[in-house]
């Protein structure tokens, strides 16, 4: 029995055992004893997670994969969640317990997985996984690069990011058209911002939506005072600003509105 990869689910099954083990080994075990694997498919990564000392849960939207796992991983059967990670109530599933997230993530929802982890960071101290290489690079990119953008800033505001290694298309069935990249996100000790987080998200997204413009022009829609817009930071382009500068800018905008 095997599972056929389904294009509409973005499935590309990893077939290289060494890479699967390396991904499983990228988890640090710091601050949690429970792990959730997203999209286990036929369990190539799952089996190495089960060898580690934490409790492994999996979530799978593909009914055929669920049936395969139930037959081949009997010791996992009670910890298989059938459903969509993007739609589940995390606090309800894990009773507010901390857990790490791992997986060979479907390319078409990988960014959304990161944003959901950010939204639930109080419960997710770590995330390790495989992304399209371009997305993996964007998440881990530093200021000054064209790849540095919304997902870079919003992730790095709360997590330390590491690009671990590149994975070629040849180790998948079916092979994707691009390289993949494995990254690790480790939650920062202080993962609460000293500013209004909704405003911070709004400032970052508004700035990068017109990334070729200076901050003075890209943030025009926020109706900032002329005095604030004279600040030297407004002569910069969004990709030039560090996380700390975005936080400071958010505070200045908040004060400007008072």
Show unreliable segments. none
Query: If helices are DSSP runs of H or I spanning 4 or more residues, what is the number of helices?
Result: 11
Which architecture of the largest domain would the CATH scheme give at its second level? Answer: 3-Layer(aba) Sandwich
The largest beta-sheet arranges its strands as: 4-3-2-5-6-9-7
Tell me what portion of residues adopts beta-strand conformation.
15-25%
- Secondary-structure element string: EHEHEHEHEHEHHEEEHHHH
Task: Give the domain tally.
Answer: 2
* Major beta-sheet overview: 7 strands, mixed
| Rg for CA atoms | 20 Å
Shape: elongated
The number of E-state strands comes to: 9
> Could you say what the CATH topology of the largest domain is called?
Rossmann fold
- Termini gap: 64 Å
CATH superfamily of the largest domain, by name, is Vaccinia Virus protein VP39
User: What class, by secondary structure content?
Assistant: alpha/beta
Q: Can you give the helix content as a percent range? A: 25-40%
Report the CATH C-level class of the largest domain: Alpha Beta
Mean pLDDT: 92
């Amino acid at each position: 029995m095997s599972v056929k990869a389904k294009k509409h689910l973005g499935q590309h099954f990893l077939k290289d055992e060494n890479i699967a083990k390396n991904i499983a080994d990228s988890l640090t075990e710091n601050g949690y004893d429970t792990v959730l694997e997203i999209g286990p498919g036929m369990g190539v990564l799952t089996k190495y997670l089960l060898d580690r000392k934490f409790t492994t849960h999996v979530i799978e939207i593909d009914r055929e994969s669920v049936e395969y796992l139930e037959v081949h991983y009997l010791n996992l059967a009670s910890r298989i969640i059938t459903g969509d990670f993007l739609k589940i109530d995390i606090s309800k599933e894990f009773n507010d317990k901390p857990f790490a997230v791992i997986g060979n993530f479907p390319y078409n929802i990988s960014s959304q997985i990161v944003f959901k982890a950010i939204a639930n960071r109080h419960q997710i101290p770590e995330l390790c996984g495989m992304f399209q290489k371009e997305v993996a690079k964007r998440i881990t990119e530093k200021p000054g690069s064209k790849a540095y953008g919304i997902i870079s800033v919003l992730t790095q505001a709360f997590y330390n990011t590491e690009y671990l290694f590149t994975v070629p298309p040849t180790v998948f069935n079916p092979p994707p058209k691009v390289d993949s990249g494995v990254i690790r996100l480790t939650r920062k000790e202080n993962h609460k911002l000293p500013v209004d987080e909704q405003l911070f998200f709004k400032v970052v997204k508004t700035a990068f939506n017109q990334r070729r413009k200076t901050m003075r022009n890209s943030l025009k829609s926020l109706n900032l005072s002329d005095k604030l817009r004279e600040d030297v930071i407004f002569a910069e382009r969004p990709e030039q600003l560090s996380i700390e500068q975005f936080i400071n800018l958010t505070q200045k905008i908040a004060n400007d509105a008072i």
